[in-house]
Amino acid sequence: MQFKKEDLFTIPNILTYVRFLCLPIYIAFMCVCFNAEDPIKRSTWLIVSFLVFIFAEVTDIIDGKVARKYNMVTDIGKVMDPVADKLMQCFGILMVAIVKTKWVQNVWFIWVFVGVLIAKEIFMGVQSKYFMRASKRQVEQMANKVGKAGAAVNFAGIILTFLLGLDNVFGWFSVPQVVLDVIYYTTMVVLLGACVLQIYAATQYTVKYAKQLKALRESGILDTLDRYGNPLPQDENKEETK
Asked: Which of 72, 152, 185, 188 holds its CA 20 to 30 A away from the CA of 108?
């Protein structure tokens, strides 16, 4: 990977910076929502927080499309974009879980999802670093269909979680019980389904990249590269293979 100064201010990377900026703003708004006793103020801050979250997710979609369409994919973006995305999703659902636990009863499944999501992201981060180092940067984790499907389900689950307990969180208008029940059970099914997808995706990534690393070691290619993945000089290469 090469971090170039001219890549710092490409449009996709600027959008990623915006997403990083959205994170503390979102957390601050959700904290205000958590402490608001007045239903109108509470619902207002929840809506504002929701809009910040949606805006951040939209920038994630746009920066990827722009980077690919206009050939603006950079090594800086490859590092920062997934970090910004994961932080926004993890803190997004964590803050919703904290707020909803205060105002809505029996939302244990949100915390199951929070635990699985955060554990999976930590595991994937550690695993990614291991495979990059062990393979001398020849194995690089890339999103696959299962990972993308999991991200989409995560997003849907987080959106549904915002709607939980409309009668308690908003408080100033009546919501039919059947609507509340449909939202509740739909959210439960989606979040628990997302947990299964997260575990499956992590397992699939592990198996796939472990096979790639094994194949590289057996091929002997790693003996011709330095720790950064660059070809060794001919004389050093000979020493390595002796």
From this structure: 152
CA distance 154 to 3: 31
Query: Tens digit of pLDDT for each residue in 147-166?
Result: 788 888 988 999 999 988 77
Query: CA gyration radius for the chain?
Result: 22
CA distance 208 to 147: 13
Calpha distance 56→20 (Å, rounded): 8
Distance, in Å, from the CA atom of 66 to the CA atom of 80, rounded to the nearest integer, reads 16
Quote the CA–CA distance of 92 and 155 in Å, as a whole number.
10
Q: Which residues contact 22 (CB under 8 A, 6 or more apart)?
A: 52, 53, 55, 56, 59, 88
Which tokens belong to 115? 């635990």
Distance from C-alpha of 238 to C-alpha of 242, rounded to nearest angstrom: 6
